[in-house]
Amino acid sequence: MPRALIRRVALAACATTVVTATASGTANASGTFRLLVFPNQSHSAVYGFIKSAARSIDMTMYELHDNAVVTDLVKRRKAGIKVRVILDRRRTSVNASAYKALKAGGVGVTYSSSAFVYTHQKTITVDRARSLIMTGNLNSKDYAHYRDYAVFDTDTADVSAIERVFNADYAKTSVTPSDGHHLVWSPTDAQKRLLPLIKGARHSLDVEEWEFDDTALVDAIVADAKRGVAVRVVGMNRSNYRGWFRSVVDAGGKVVTYNGKTGRYIHAKAIVVDYGTATAKVFEGSENFSDNSLNHNRELGLIVNASGVLRGIETAFRSDFAGGTRFGGAVPLLRD
């Protein structure tokens, strides 16, 4: 079979995977947004997204250790596509191999600015028209067990804002990010955007976070529980979070944890407020509940009311909540 035909067949297969996932409800379409849920889905939709680029690819990634992604980025560059990548400068133990391969393949690749403690953002923008905002890294060793989410965003104002920040971060120049219509940026305004989201809960609040020790956000969750909001938290069973989990439980909320040694690993960062009501909203992004993540890192998330994104994340959350260990159980703690 000619190589050109092989390539067309491969790309068609990737597109079919995405469409099938959308139809089955694993990935959800709602207006300008579409959700991916990992590890329920494979990363084929991410690979397909990269391969779909006709003009440009801009990627900011905390960790890149996926040979398929690196290979696809180099192939797109050799096909004449403009490809630029920002990798976190403090994660060279993970990123060095990808950096070297991308550089050798002619891709514009740079390590992140020292203006941020970490560049923890995980975003891909294709053709300056579509962005994929992720909670997880492109590190293939994590794919099988990590709970993560990703949202395709084609809102023009959002994508324009993401590209403007990318251009500045790539050049290592200062910029004040715009939130577009839905974005949440660190260190600019993440805490200010997430606090009213949490405080605005009237009926229910579901939180899934890898890190859980930001005083302002946890205090807001506790206050919700005390005033009768049905609060549920899914997190990782690390000793430095126990006091925070206890404060939520003592206020009337429910907490379940995972130990990370078997089964699911909670790496997601998501908040669902008042699911099933007309005012329901969902946050998804790279921001953890920590001072560093909210106020000192480069991070990106978004807040939307898209029904498909709400439904998909809430469904995954309920599964994780049902499968976790109620806080206080005899589960070995992770070493900090």
Secondary-structure element order, as H and E?
HEEHEEHEHEEEEEHEHEHEHEEEEHEHE
| Overall mean pLDDT | 90
Instruction: Please tally the β strands and state the result.
Output: 19
Separation of the first and last Cα atoms? 53 Å
- SS content category: alpha/beta
Instruction: List low-pLDDT spans.
Output: 1-31, 329-336
* Main beta-sheet annotation: 9 strands, mixed
C-alpha geometry: globular
Calculate Rg over CA atoms. Answer: 19 Å
Q: In which range does the helix fraction lie?
A: 25-40%
Architecture blueprint of SSEs:
Layout: H1 3-24, E1 29-30, E2 33-38, H2 44-51, E3 56-61, E4 64-65, H3 67-78, E5 82-87, H4 92-104, E6 108-111, E7 122-126, E8 130-134, E9 138-139, E10 146-153, H5 156-171, E11 183-186, H6 190-199, E12 204-209, H7 215-226, E13 230-236, H8 242-250, E14 254-258, E15 265-266, E16 269-273, E17 281-285, H9 291-295, E18 299-304, H10 307-323, E19 325-326
Helix pairs in contact: 1-2, 6-7, 7-8
How would you describe what is shown here?
The chain starts with a helix and ends in a 10-residue tail after the last strand. A hairpin with a 3-residue loop joins strand 7 (122-126) and strand 8. The protein has 336 residues and is of the alpha/beta class. The strands form three sheets. Strands 1, 2, 3, 5, 6, 7, 8, 10 and 15 form a nine-stranded mixed beta sheet that branches. The chain has an eight-stranded mixed beta sheet with strand order 11-18-17-16-12-13-14-19, with helices on both faces. The chain is 37% helix and 26% strand.
